[in-house]
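Next comes a single protein record:
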Amino acid sequence: MMKNTFTRGAALAVSILPLLALISGCAADSSPADESVDNVEVGASNVHLMPMHTTSEGSNGALVSAAAPAGAHLTYFGGPVISNVKVYSVFWNSSVPNQASLNSFYSTITGSAYLSWLSEYNTSTQTIGLGSLGGSVVDTGAPTGSTITDTQIQAELSRLMAAGQLPANNANNLYMIHFPAGVTIKQGTSTSCVQFCAYHGTYVRGGQNAYYGVIPDLSGGCASGCGSNTKLNNTTSVASHEMIEAITDPAVGLAQNLAAPLAWYDNTNGEIGDICNGQQGTVSGFTIQLEYSNALNACIATKSSTPPPPPPPGGCSHAICATGTKLVSSCDSCATKICAADSYCCNTKWDSQCVGEVGSICGKTCP
């Protein structure tokens, strides 16, 4: 049976969509740099959005599957990683809820097994280790509008650094900014709790990258579209998504293509947290989002507590009715027949067409 090459080509075309989003779909406000704020190039970078959880019809509320997408794999493109993250929590004003709990979360989770397994994403010149909570700031001078743009957020971060309320940006500092209820974040044409739950980004200040995460209040649309737990637990889950993505791909905001400063990225599925978007677990008493492990080919919380899933009966690396990595033809009698007719399934990938051939070639019915 001849493979449908048009279908293969169409699938390849679809796979470039995350790259297009990386380059242009998540563009930050493109207003000119605000030269009044410490000579910072404000508003000139992109960010990486965490999308709302949606059903296939596009309505909010339904969480994604608990399994990683078939074929997910993070590739290193040469950019920086954060070796020992030092988190600074920034509360937009005194009305941000759960401040003490969030500080405890950052202090605990950065020194936990949730970070220690990220060493599998070390590079030839960089290592990823444990981190810490560097400090916390309640920003009493932040803009007071009900709609805040990314340009304003970058400018406010730089103002706090210039005033000595935050330490200057460096290779390890990560500023996690939390907002109160009633404040909407605008990122280009996208809106918090409508198109996205949160994001992390990069801009250049004083010739060095500044890394930051933006966490809206998870009320309203965010309550159903950004988790399946309490408001605090969903907040720590979303914050962990952004923190781990920032550690493994901090300069994504400056990337223009699949090359440095991009770090660990999957051009089909996005960053380490995107692959497992919405899947929650618990570490040290806090709700976190699972993250993707290349080594285990799975979404995990900690490597020690999450062994790789066992192969299904029959010796195949996955069921013949499920898409995934290529199969060894001898692992199953049906796989033997399919691979004899369609070598792609055992040489490259066991995709949906291979699954369809379970019926057309083997005469079996997949659920």
About this structure: Confidence is low (pLDDT under 50) at residues 1-17, 23-44, 54-65, 306-311. The CA atoms of residues 134 and 290 lie 24 Å apart. The longest helix spans residues 231-248. The first strand starts at residue 47 and ends at 51.
